[in-house]
Amino acid sequence: MKFYQYSQMRILSLFLKYLHIWWSTIISPTFIVAQVTSGLQHASQVYTSDNSALMTGSSSLFANPAASGQQEEKWDFSLSASRIYNTDILSLSAIASVRLNNQRIGMLIGQYGIKGYYMSQFSLLYSRSIGSKSFIGIQSNISQFRIKDLGYKLGSDISIGLWHPISHRTIISAYLRNPLKLEIITPNTYKKMALGILFKISDRLHLFTEIDKIQDQEISLKPGIRFEAISMMQLFVSFKSAPAETSFGVHIIIREKMHTDIGMNVHPILGTTLTFSLGYLLNQ
Q1: How far, rounded to the nearest angstrom, does the alpha carbon of residue 262 sit from its chain's CA centroid?
Q2: Is 204:198 a contact under the CB 8 Å cutoff?
Q3: DSSP characters for 108-157?
Q4: Which candidate, 170, 241, 189, places its Cα nearest to that of 211?
Q5: Does the bond joining 223 to the residue before it have cis omega, within 30 degrees of 0?
Q6: Residues 55-67: pLDDT tens digits?
Q7: Based on the structure, what is the number of domains in the chain?
């Protein structure tokens, strides 16, 4: 019984430590550590150390909404699960998007936490092409944070983005979160500006980096490498300067339209986060 109680208290203690970081992000933007969207995580986002300006496909619903437009397939589905190592803190999310001519509409539903202490998020995305190669996008997010016996808080924000290839080897991307400072009940949803660039040294080796600035925080630099080991597998490694993080990942094509992403992120406070996601593309 004592061991059981100790285990429960340890899990609760670890969750509250992470909760304190997240809560400080919402209530006091002067302390922002976890930079994933409202605690939800996606494998692609983890292994690129949250290079949000360069997220593409369904991953962009966690970051730059414009990047979803470049997905050629009509339907894009993704399921993701993330867990902080040695805890019961779990993140689950589902994404679906559809292309309508030169536009794409998407939706995200997710939940993060443990029983009695969790937050949920619902997002809607719209992106469209401008010209022949560029894309713009906007995304609205509504989140609910609930603690057992203490009620809940609601928060909202929007994100806008641009995704533009300036040559066949170079892509630039810009992303702005909460430019209007929207709020439902919870104020001070943090503002974020990000600028990313990806350079294709070859078809198999890509270099990318992002510079971002969060309200009242120092500038963060996030360089990384993407390498195609074989035709069905890509390897990733990236770093982050503030706070110092290291991320690793692998993207595997299971079938012609199905793929999986496995990511690992090492954070100085939160520890190691393991993430798995499964995606499916349908061109009908």
Answers
A1: 14
A2: no
A3: EEEEEEETTEEEEEEEEEEEEEETTTEEEEEEEEEEEEEETTTEEEEEEE
A4: 241
A5: no
A6: 777 788 777 888 8
A7: 1
List residues bridging with 213 in a β-sheet. Answer: 193
Residue 191 DSSP one-character state? P
Question: For residue 200, what are its two tokens?
Answer: 């294709």
Q: Please, are residues 195 and 176 in contact by the beta-carbon 8 Å criterion?
A: no
Residue 47 CB: number of other CB atoms within 10 A? 27
Instruction: Please give the helix or strand (H or E) that residue 18 lies within, else none.
Output: helix 2-27
pLDDT tens digits along 125-179: 999 999 878 999 999 988 887 887 788 787 788 889 999 999 989 999 998 887 7
Q: How far is CA 3 from CA 6, 7, 10, 16, 63, in A?
A: 5, 6, 10, 20, 41
Domain that includes residue 204, residue range: 2-282
Write out pLDDT tens, residues 180-221.
665 544 433 567 788 999 999 999 999 999 998 877 778 889
- CATH code for position 259: 2.40.160.60
pTM: 0.77
| Backbone phi and psi for residue 263, each to the nearest 5 degrees, phi listed first | -130, 150
